[in-house]
C-alpha cells in the first residue's frame, strides 16, 4: 500500500484503476532498407490501422460531444489521407529508407512549411500534423497509444498536468477523478474538476512516477489523499467515507430552493462562476441565486479571429434567458497573463501578470472592446445583466471604460435598441491599489467584485503557478483580510454592494470572516453553492461582527485560521 | 477544362472551407489542380490547399482533366455556393 499526499481541489471519493497519461516512447533509428516493396506494404498497413482508429474516435467523439468538437478528428483524417503527403513519404521509402524515417522527414517538412506561414490558423494545423504522424509512427513501431477517448471502464486519470485540449474530451462516464503532478487550487484542472463535480488531487509532485498504469486507486479529493493498492481495512474505511459523502450531498439538496440567509436572517446572494453559456445550467441545478462571474474569454479562444457582435450577443442573451431575471454579472474580456489569443499577436512579456492584459488591452484596442460592450448592451434587454471591468488599477481606467460604455449606450439608444434601465456597471477588485482607494472608486461604481485569486497574488507578490513559492499564497494573510474589509466598508459608506468571485468565497474558514465583514454576494463553482448555503445558514452575522476588530489585529494567516476554528465555527 | 472562382468565405480558403472542398473532390477520378498566385496544388490535398493561404476576395483557377471533370465542376460549384465559400466568375 502506498499513500500519496497532494492538494485537495475537488471533493469526493473515487475508487478505480489508474490510467496513466504518459507520452509513449516513439524513438526510432534511420535504417537503410533493401526490400522496398515490403516496407511500402508495412507503411500502408500502418495508414489503414490509423485510419480505422481515427474513424472510430471520430464517431465516439461525435456521439459524446457533438459534431463541432469532433471536427478535429475529421481534420486529422484529411491530413492522414493527404495525397501529397502520402506520395512524398512513399517516394522517400522508395529511395531506400525505413518508413519511420520517411514519415518523420516528410511531416517535419510540412510542419516547417506551415510554421513559416504568417497565419495563426496554419500554425495550429502543425499540431494536427504532429498528432497524426505520431499515431502512424506508433502503429509502425507497434507501440500502444494512450487514448482517453476510447475508455471502456472506470478510471482515475494520472497525468503530469491536464491541458485544456485534453480535458475537452474528458468523459465523466468513465473518468471518476484525476490526479496531477503539478497545479494548485486555482489551476485549470482544479477548476475543471469542480465544474465536472469529480474528485481531484493536484500538486502531488510525482504521482506519475509512483503510480503504475492499471493500479487500483482510492482518490480522496476532500483531503487530498491517494491510496494505491489499499488494504481491505483501508478500502472499507473509504467506502464508509464515500457513503458519508453521498449522504451529505443528499442532505444538502434540501438547500436547493431556499433563500440564502444567515442564521439571524441576513440575506446574501450565493452565485456561480461560469466559463461558457452551458455552465449556467449547472448553476441553475445547484439552486444558485445568480451568476457572479461570467468569464467571456471562451468566446475569443480556440478560434482564428475575433467573435462578431452578433455571436457575442447570442451567447450573452442565451445565459440571461436561462437565468430568468436572476442577476448575471459579465466580466469584459480578461485576456493576457496566462491566457493568450494567438490572433491578437501579443508580444511575449517578461512579467505577463504585470503586463498588457485585461482592461489594459480593452482600453488600447478600443474597437474590440466596443464590440463586446455593444453586444452586452443589446443583450441587457433579455434579463438582469450587470457588467464589470477586470484589472482596474486607477480611477482613470474605470472612468475611461465607463465613458466608452456610456457612448455606446447612447448610440444604441438613439438607433432604437431597447436597453435595460437597471444595467449596473461595476469593477473587479484584484489589484491592491484599487482596494486601498476603494472609497474613491465607490463614488463611481455600482458594485465591486473582489477577485481573490489575483488579489492574493498581487498583495503577497506570489506567482500562484509557482510551486516554489506556493507557501506565500495565503488567503488569510492579515493584509488580504484588511484589504477586503477596506473594500466592503468603502462600498457600504456609499450604499454600494460587494461580491467576491475568487476561490475564497467558498472557503469554510473564510466564510464566517466574510459574512461578519458584511460581504453581500459569494460567487463560486456550482458544486460549492449548496455547501456554502448550508454553512451560512448556521452562522449568525450579529454574533460574528464583534469579532471583526480582533481578526484584523491578528498577525499571521495561521493565527487567523486558528482563531476562526476556535471562536467562530463553534458559535452556537 | 478550367474555371475561375472568387473566394468569398470571410476567412479565405482556410480550415473549414478548405476541408469541405477537398472532401468534395476526393471521390472523383480526375486530377484536379488549384492555381493561386501562379502556384498550382492538388485540390485533393488539404495541406497543399491550406499552404496556398488563399485570402478572402481573391480569384483562383481550378482545372481538371479526366472522364468525370464535368460532374466534378458541378459539385465544386454546388459546394462553393451552398457553403458560402465562393462563386464562379
Shape of chain B: globular
Count of domains of chain B: 1
Low-confidence stretches of chain A: none
- What spatial order of strands do you see in the largest sheet of chain B? 3-2-4-1-5
Give the strand tally of chain A.
16
CA-CA gap between termini of chain A: 42 Å
CA(first)-CA(last) distance of chain B: 15 Å
Query: Into how many domains do the coordinates of chain A divide?
Result: 3
Tell me what portion of residues of chain A adopts beta-strand conformation: 5-15%
What is the CATH C-level name of chain B?
A: Alpha Beta
At the third CATH level, what is the topology name of chain B? Answer: Histidine-containing Protein, Chain: A
Using DSSP, what is the number of strands of chain B?
A: 5
Proportion of beta-strand residues of chain B: 25-35%
What would CATH call the architecture of chain B? Answer: 2-Layer Sandwich
- Summarize the main sheet of chain B: 5 strands, antiparallel
Query: What class would the helix/strand composition of chain B place it in?
Result: alpha+beta
Q: What is the CATH C-level name of the largest domain in chain A?
A: Alpha Beta
The DSSP helix count of chain A reads: 23
**Rg of chain A:** 26 Å
Organism (chain A): Lysinibacillus xylanilyticus
Family (chain A): Belongs to the PEP-utilizing enzyme family.
Catalytic activity (chain A): L-histidyl-[protein] + phosphoenolpyruvate = N(pros)-phospho-L-histidyl-[protein] + pyruvate
GO molecular function, one term (chain A): kinase activity
Can you offer a commentary on this structure?
- The complex is a heterodimer of chains A (572) and B (89).
- Chain A is of the alpha/beta class and 572 residues long.
- Chain A has 3 domains: 2-22 and 150-251, 3-Layer(bba) Sandwich (Glucose Oxidase, domain 1), CATH 3.50.30; 36-141, Orthogonal Bundle (Enzyme I, Chain A, domain 2); 264-539, TIM Barrel (Alpha-Beta Barrel).
- Chain A has helices spanning 36-65, 67-80, 83-94, 99-115, 120-141, 164-167, 188-196, 207-210, 232-252, 279-285, 309-323, 359-364, 366-379, 395-414, 432-436, 438-442, 452-459, 478-493, 510-517, 529-537, 541-544, 548-553, 557-568, and strands at residues 2-5, 7-10, 13-20, 155-159, 175-180, 200-202, 216-220, 225-228, 269-274, 291-295, 327-331, 384-389, 424-429, 447-450, 497-500, 521-524.
- In chain A, strands 1-8-7-3-4-5-6-2 form an 8-stranded mixed β-sheet. An 8-stranded parallel beta barrel of chain A has the order 9-10-11-12-13-14-15-16, surrounded by 5 helices.
- In chain A, helix 7 (188-196) links the parallel strand 5 (175-180) and strand 6.
- In chain A, helix 3 packs across helix 4 (99-115).
- In chain A, 42% of the residues are buried.
- The mean pLDDT of chain A is 91.
- The mean pLDDT of chain B is 89.
- Chain B has one domain (2-88): Histidine-containing Protein, Chain: A (2-Layer Sandwich), CATH 3.30.1340.
- In chain B, strands 3-2-4-1-5 form a 5-stranded antiparallel β-sheet, with helices on one face.
- Chain B has 89 residues and is α+β, with helices and mostly antiparallel strands.
- The longest helix of chain B is centred in the last third of the chain and has 14 residues, at 69-82.
- In chain B, helix 1 (15-25) packs antiparallel against helix 3.
- Helix content of chain B is 36%, strand content 29%.
- Classes of the chains: A alpha/beta (572), B alpha+beta (89).
- Chain A binds chain B through residues 74-75, 78-79, 81-85, 110, 113-114, 117, 119, 121-122, 125, 129, 304-305, and chain B through 11, 14-15, 19, 22-23, 26, 41-42, 44-48, 50-51, 53.
